[in-house]
Amino acid sequence: MAVYTPFQAQPPTFHNRSLGRDRPCHQEFPVPLVPMRILLDHAAANSYGLAAFNVNNMEQIQAIMEAAKETDSPVIVQASRGARVYSQDAYLRHLMLAAAELYPNIPIAMHQDHGNSPKTCKSAIEQNFTSVMMDGSLAEDGKSPATYDYNVQVTADVVKAAHPVGVSVEGELGCLGSLESGEGEQEDGHGAVGKLDHSQLLTDPAQAEDFYHKVKVDALAVAIGTSHGAYKFSRKPDGAVLAMDRIIEIHRRLPNCHMVMHGSSSVPQEIQDMINKYGGKMKQTWGVPVEEIQLGIKHGVRKVNVDTDNRMAITAAIRKVFAGTPEKFDPRDYLKPARESMQAVCKARMISFGQAGNAGKIKSVTCKEFAKSYS
Does position 39 have pLDDT exceeding 90, yes or no? Predict the structure, then answer.
């Protein structure tokens, strides 16, 4: 009697010399999952910015997509290394597939945030991310400031692997950190450690020009005094601690460069107050004012990373439910208002940055199709 063996389909493979081994080919998601570059190009042509929201779970993706639907906004959804470990790549990948299926009229880019090495970025490409960030401002440990030559080398390595399959690449020049304290701020274990001087905490415009032309990144994250987390500034920021003049000068030198502002949550006072009202103990802090981000958008900023604001919105909503109805135990009773609270923040940023109303104007293309533009 023949033994029945279930058929197991194997993903197609091709030999990619840049990786040096056979691997699953970069399989296409159903459109509208798109390379980030097409969103950046459209934003530049129409003078707006794109909020890039970090995710770890289903509720966060749902909040982003509902806000995008409500405002007709293209979106960048991004995951850090920590998020990929927390969620696991398979879960994250299929959540993005669900978003693409449920919102077919919204162009979505799936971005790896703060890749610490070419290996990390290449693994994201294998997991169907349509954009990756190689943060070569730090060494592979994600803590030690790297040399300029190292940054050029590792970022160029990622570009060499990504562009042939149509995947966008973001680089970073300068270390994120506070100009007040001279220290970096770690997020998911990634961030400069120890005291840094201003030459490390601020992107040099001349070096940015050299880096952009040498490496040919699709986007460039610049260091201007912002940092990850809630505790960015001890007072409302001014030019002494938030160097918007660097963005203006880099844009003057590189008018076609798509710049990225990291650590750009605004840390709204009303959300701080709500967290503390319902049992939290957040210290008074200030984030990046929306009007400063809007100034950056006028001078070439096309991607604005927002994470802390959404975390705070979720936390405030959950604390309110717990404080007001301590008898509740069904996670849906607090995750639904948490999701709605994050959706409101996403909607506000989409409107403030100018991306609202643009989803339907973008012609979606696959990574495979876009790869031809690099040849």
Answer: yes
